[in-house]
Amino acid sequence: MALLASVFVVAACGLVYELAAAALASYVLGDSVLQFSTIIGAYLFAMGVGSYLSRFFERQLPAHFLRIELLVALIGGALPALLFIANAWTPGAFRLLLYGLVLVVGMLVGLEIPLVMRILKRNVALRDLVSQVLTFDYLGALAVSVAFPLVLVPQLGLIRTGLLFGLMNAAVAVWALWLFRDELRQWRAHAAACAGVLALLGAGFAGADQITTLAEDRFYQDRIVASERSPWQRIVVTQGRTGHRLFLNGNLQFAERDEYRYHEALVHPAMAAHGAPKKVAVLGGGDGMAVREVLKYPSVQSITLVELDPAMTRLFAQQPALARLNAGALASPKVTIVNTDAFKWLEQGADQGGGSYDVIVVDFPDPTNFAIGKLYTNSFYALLDQRLAAGGYAVVQTTSPLVARKSFWTVVGTIESVGLRAAPYHAHVPSFGEWGFVIASRRPWRLPDALPGGLRFLDLPALAPMFDFPRDMARVPADVNRLSNQALVTTYEREWGKVHE
């Protein structure tokens, strides 16, 4: 029974390494569906190779099993830490190291179960052996598949999760050392190897924060003043000579020195054109910067901020240095924070006859994966239309029309496909380059008569030219982005991928 319990642990550990590699690949390389598919495919292929190779292990099976457990523990447990460091110090080698580690760990994991079954065959009938081993194998996989996103990563982070399960693999090796002590020819050497692996993994677990700091300090360059791992993303705020910068999963979201250009361009063309908006919704924008700009209109009576990640709104509401960036906007009595998925929020409001909004500001990250890409689909914009007042405006941040030209016009065409008018425009934000936005409404957008006082970037003479597009950003044919195809994610990945080649 104890050996069968080890099958449960072995299966759980193997799946953790696979999920950790896929999660890291999606963070660094984007396109989560592609990364998870290729990582899982490569891992299963490697397991098949390992299972085939197990036929060549004929003698001293307990000793082979023990050594394999130690190798899996050491390599698999260190996998997230090694990939984090590689991404920070040698980003060009990240993909090679990623698939190299996946193949090595997969082959080692593929060796484990066949060896366990051959060891168990001494005392268990074949019929019962197969059913029992597979039962414990699948139970281990089930337990980890639930715990990984809900408990392990949110509470421990990827580095500590990998090291913890490496320690569990090493514990199985220690148990095998005791169970087969009479069969092992070099017991002392095996004992020393177990002790060494446990010491290394234990030291890594204790120093996981230092490992993370080593990688992030190199990657972000500036001093990290706030960092948090939530179930949805890695949030990092840095501070350097040019001020604070916000990164989500390593992608820059704003830089203090020029964020006012982005947020003024995002908010004021729609707000000022409305005239006297009273009820406003901000979807995304958990940093509170867009809310700060909305609050510059005395007519505004209520703002609903819909942000998926409570860690974002908590950081930018409670940390004094970050709250100063949004001028304490999230503490305003006019602001109601709703931590939920914006798609679901729109659906629930439409189903329950929720009220309409004069202006809706949509400030999501770029569509780097299908989870975000759904927020740029015609299904999403149809729901947005239902929550927009008859004379209201919605505005959507829409990536760079210069770098990702087809992606930009895909969003414009998708908005138009649900019957809304689209007024695309662009502004220069030094940290990002030329950046695009789209106003969606049932009535034509008109140039406002006035803008709020105290703006640092926008004025009326500068506003009209933002709606003109030069030849290299002019409209190109593009598909409608639908939930069924998510064409935008593929297009976006291809266009931005060329910039990094």
Summarize the SSE layout with pairings.
Layout: H1 2-29, H2 32-53, H3 61-89, H4 94-120, H5 126-179, H6 187-206, H7 208-220, E1 223-229, E2 234-240, E3 243-248, E4 251-255, H8 259-274, E5 279-284, H9 289-294, E6 302-306, H10 310-318, H11 320-325, E7 335-338, H12 342-351, E8 357-363, H13 370-373, H14 378-386, E9 388-397, H15 405-417, E10 421-429, E11 433-441, H16 460-463, H17 487-500
Parallel strand pairs: 5-6, 5-8, 6-7, 8-9
Antiparallel strand pairs: 1-2, 2-3, 3-4, 9-11, 10-11
What is the CATH class of the largest domain? Alpha Beta
How does the major sheet shape up?
Answer: 7 strands, mixed
Query: What's the gyration radius in Å?
Result: 27 Å
Globular, elongated, flat, extended or rod-shaped: what is the shape? elongated
CATH topology-level fold name of the largest domain? Rossmann fold
Tell me the number of strands.
11
Features:
Rossmann fold, 17 helices, Spermidine Synthase, Chain: A, domain 2, Growth Hormone, Chain: A, alpha/beta, about 500 residues
Short structural description:
By secondary structure, the protein is of the alpha/beta class. The chain has 17 helices and eleven strands. Helices cover 57% and strands 15% of the residues.
